[in-house]
Every structure is written in C-alpha cells, then in structure tokens.
C-alpha cells in the first residue's frame, strides 16, 4: 500500500486531528509566519487527508521540521525526498526513533506549544513518513 506524492518527509512530526473548518478559522493569525519559517506545514490549498473516528471526521494536519532549521539533529538517514532527486537505498534499521522524537520536542517544543494554543490542544508527536502533492 502506498501513494505517490511530490514531497516526502521521514522522521518525527507533530499531528493535530482537527474537524473540518477549524484550521480555516485559525490560519488568518499572522503569527503563522513564524511557524512556516521553522516547520513544514504538510498540506497545500486543500485540507490534508481525513479520517473518521467514531463517526466524526477529522483532517490530519502534520507539521515537520524544515531541514534548513535543523540544529544538532541525530545522525541518521536522509529525511526529505523529492521524486526528481531521490536515488539509491536508505536503510532504516539503525534509526533511533525515540532520540529523534526527543530532539524534535527539545528543538520545536515551545513553537509546537504555541500552535497547540491556537488549535485547541497539544499535538500527538509521531515518527513516520508524511507525503503531499505540491498543487
């Protein structure tokens, strides 16, 4: 199972599951510019993928660290892939996911906290792959 996207990110990320329309109300805030400078907001003009939990629809809004802002990142595999530049093999067995989640929390915790204030609660911190079409 998989899907084709123009941009992939592999590593720690923050996810908010929001009901339709919640992000639209939060986005006009000019403080999102600071967020966009440090975190890749993994959706475009359309809302991100939706899931249904107990008959309630949520969109999965994911925030990933912008590679240009990484400081003291744990050693490991390449994290950002693009279809026009990805070549070779990446072995994921040696990635210390907990160390990367700890780094992500230390590096972006205060910023994620401010995002959570705007979105009504804290993020779920996860490690995995996030992809989107750049439309």
List the helices and strands and how they pair.
Blueprint: E1 7-18, H1 22-26, H2 32-38, E2 39-41, E3 50-53, E4 56-65, E5 80-82, H3 97-119, E6 124-132
Describe this structure in words.
The structure is a single chain. 26% of the residues lie in helices and 30% in strands. The chain has helices at 22-26, 32-38, 97-119, and strands spanning 7-18, 39-41, 50-53, 56-65, 80-82, 124-132. The chain has one domain (7-132). With 135 residues, the protein is an alpha+beta fold. Strands 1, 2, 3, 4, 5 and 6 form a six-stranded antiparallel sheet that branches. It has three helices and six strands; from the N terminus they run E-H-H-E-E-E-E-H-E.
Would you kindly provide a brief summary of this structure?
This protein is an alpha+beta fold.
* Percent of sequence in beta strands: 25-35%
Q: What is the count of β-strands? A: 6
The shape, in one word, is globular
Radius of gyration: 15 Å
Q: How many helical elements?
A: 3
Structural class: alpha+beta
The H-and-E topology, N to C, reads as EHHEEEEHE
**Low-confidence blocks of residues:** none
Overall number of structural domains:
1
Oligomeric form of this entry? single chain
Distance between the termini: 22 Å
- Give the rounded overall mean pLDDT: 79
Helix content: 25-40%
Biggest sheet, in brief? 6 strands, antiparallel
